[in-house]
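Here's my example:
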Amino acid sequence: MPERDVIVVGAGFTGLSAALELVDAGLDVLLLEARDRVGGKVESETLSDGTRVDTGGQFFCRDMAELMALIARNGKTPVMTHYDGEMIYRPAVPPQQGFARWQGVDALRDRMIATAPDDPDLAKLTAADWVARQDDVPGDIRKSFLRLIKGLWCRAPEEIAFTWLASNDRRITNTYSEMEMFLPDTLHALADQLAARFGDRLRLGTAVTGIEHSETGATVIVGDERLPAKRLILALPPVMIRRLPFSPALPGQFQKALSAWAPGLSIKLQASYDRPFWRERGLSGAVMWHEPQGLYACDASRGDYAGLIIFVGGPEAQQWHERPREELTAFIREQLTEAFGPEGGNPRDIHVRDWVNDPWSGGAYSDVVIDLDARYAEDIINEGIPPIHFASSELSPSYPGYVEGAIVAGRLAAGRVIGALANSRSKIGGE
């Protein structure tokens, strides 16, 4: 088989964005995806009533400039997430008390972001260690901050490296809520639309079983097939990259950088109703659980569809992943009953997407760094090992863990490849 310019492995938004840049640059590109669909951690399913919903990544805001521009160029129109009305706090507290608590959480988050990245006193701390040191902050605010970590970063604060967490959060720079809006026909439909541009340059259901590499190129092994390329982009989360067999093996420092990560733990549920009854009561549909930690709900209604999304993150997701699905849905009905009354606990349907230990992404949202000795894991991976380049939302300099970050990471990787190939051609021409 003739050598291609570039092979991109992974057709999430990172891989799609990288491959589109490369195609637009006139390069011969092949995009491989192990799943039978594109989108990566963005996916969709059709409910029993015919409504298509995002079961993976879904929300974004106007601050996410690259994604907003991509949406506009592809003729999509977002809808605003409904936030009018009061939020429910569980266990119940007066709205003023709940609002004050989350103002305190935001202030503690700002304190975390403001820490000095090179402070040696922080180097060996977990996120829980750092929170415990903030003894001038009321206990309920510290507890709520730990809840935020479980729900947003989807891992136990006792595991996550604090310096990584602070660095990660510095790059999430939105002023509007990251859940400000979504696409009524799904974000996954946008991924499908992008994928349609590739034609036979996209191969689904194609799992990579090995990678051979040298200074002059890489060969991707797919079963009995060998696919050579001048450059290779692995548009995969770190926890998935380390599962691939490389020949020769990756350098020890690189293997350590990859092993520093653990996958996010998350379950996303969609509760469907005949109407958004909470709005009639002056409620936003948002529920913030102080206990059990790691739960959050919001209104996902649009058009003639009424529904709530419930996120379960961190250790709580791991616990429910190991139990029967019927117990999970019964638990969610119980939680919705306590929040909204009997009407809340009686949706016509609850759809469950369990992302814990997902076979092709490892988990949901984003990997997190749990090795306290792997301070520069991201920098090492981003450097790559020519001719192999690595890209994922987790490694993005902007909005890591979000679709915006995936787009940025993919385009940056494509830029590095385009530059490297141009440099190689100029050297050949000068000889």
In short: The radius of gyration is 22 Å. The mean pLDDT is 96. The chain has two domains: 4-42+185-261+371-430, 84-176+265-354. The chain is about 35% helix and 20% strand.
